[in-house]
Specification:
By secondary structure, the protein is an alpha+beta fold. It has a single domain, classed as Aminopeptidase, CATH 3.40.630.70. 38% of the residues lie in helices and 22% in strands. It contains eight helices and nine strands. The strands form two sheets. The chain has a seven-stranded mixed beta sheet with strand order 4-5-6-7-8-3-9, with helices on both faces. The protein has a two-stranded antiparallel sheet with strand order 1-2. Helix 5 packs across helix 8. The longest helix is centred in the last third of the chain and has 16 residues. It is globular, with a radius of gyration of 17 Å. It is an enzyme of class 2 (transferase). One of its GO terms (molecular function) is leucyl-tRNA--protein transferase activity. Its main location: cytoplasm. It comes from Hyphomicrobium sulfonivorans. Keywords: Acyltransferase, Cytoplasm, Transferase.
């Protein structure tokens, strides 16, 4: 479902938060198009927090990498990274209005970033919106191998530790499928969303300096609980 906002209502941070509670999110046709439209996919991607698959090679990389993970230190550079062109994608849907809206949500404490750094160089990361026990992933990027994957694993561990119930990925991609992303129909997604919104969660329950082994332990323990 999509509707152009220029024939609807002005999108403010408060309207955007309300939209998330209804299961919809905004996009633009391109970075140069100032208009936004609402998206409500018929089928929605989610990454179940109790059964995240961590490929063995990636687990080894996470333990040994020199890359460092930070949280909420540079929203503008993360959005820049997500908006940049890359192989197979020359254009982006992130326009100036998207940048402004999510920067405003960041200032309100609802938008968060997980960033992967090589020294003083941002090499990967993601951003999304936290609302009660739901986290809505918006976009991710990587300038070095595995940089966005490392950020995603740190995000998942942070959400699990903070008692989140839902990690919305919007769509299912090959990149996300390797971690166990599944597709829900609209009715199933709304049930999961309702449960998550009724849950109190804390994005900062996990220390900001969480170490790689702690991240892997949290993910493993969540999977073990599911198997019992």
């Amino acid at each position: 479902m999509a509707s152009r906002d220029d024939i609807a209502i002005e999108i403010t941070p408060q309207v955007l938060l309300k939209a998330y509670t209804c299961g919809i999110f905004p996009m633009a046709e391109s970075a140069d198009d100032p208009a936004l439209f609402w998206i409500e996919p018929q089928h929605r991607g989610i990454l179940p927090l109790n059964r995240i698959h961590v490929p063995k090679r990636l687990a080894r990389t996470l333990r040994t990498t020199h890359l460092k993970v930070k949280v909420d230190t540079d929203i503008d550079r993360v959005i820049d990274g997500c908006a940049g062109s890359r192989p197979g994608r020359r254009s982006t849907w992130i326009n100036d209005r998207i940048r402004t809206l999510y920067r405003d949500l960041f200032n309100l404490g609802h938008c968060h970033t997980v960033e992967t750094w090589d020294g003083d160089r941002l090499v990967g990361g993601l951003y999304g919106v936290a609302l009660n026990g739901a986290f809505f992933g918006e976009s991710m990027f990587s300038f070095e191998r595995d940089a966005s994957k490392i950020a995603l694993l740190h995000l998942a561990a942070r959400l699990i530790h903070g008692r989140f119930r839902l990690l919305d990925t919007q769509f299912v991609t090959d990149h996300l499928r390797q971690f166990g992303t599944v597709e829900l129909n609209r009715e199933e997604f709304h049930r999961a969303l309702e449960q998550a919104l009724d849950t109190d969660a804390d994005f900062f329950a996990l220390p900001l300096d969480a170490q790689p082994q702690q991240v892997l332990d949290i993910l493993d323990q969540a999977n073990t609980k599911k198997m019992r």
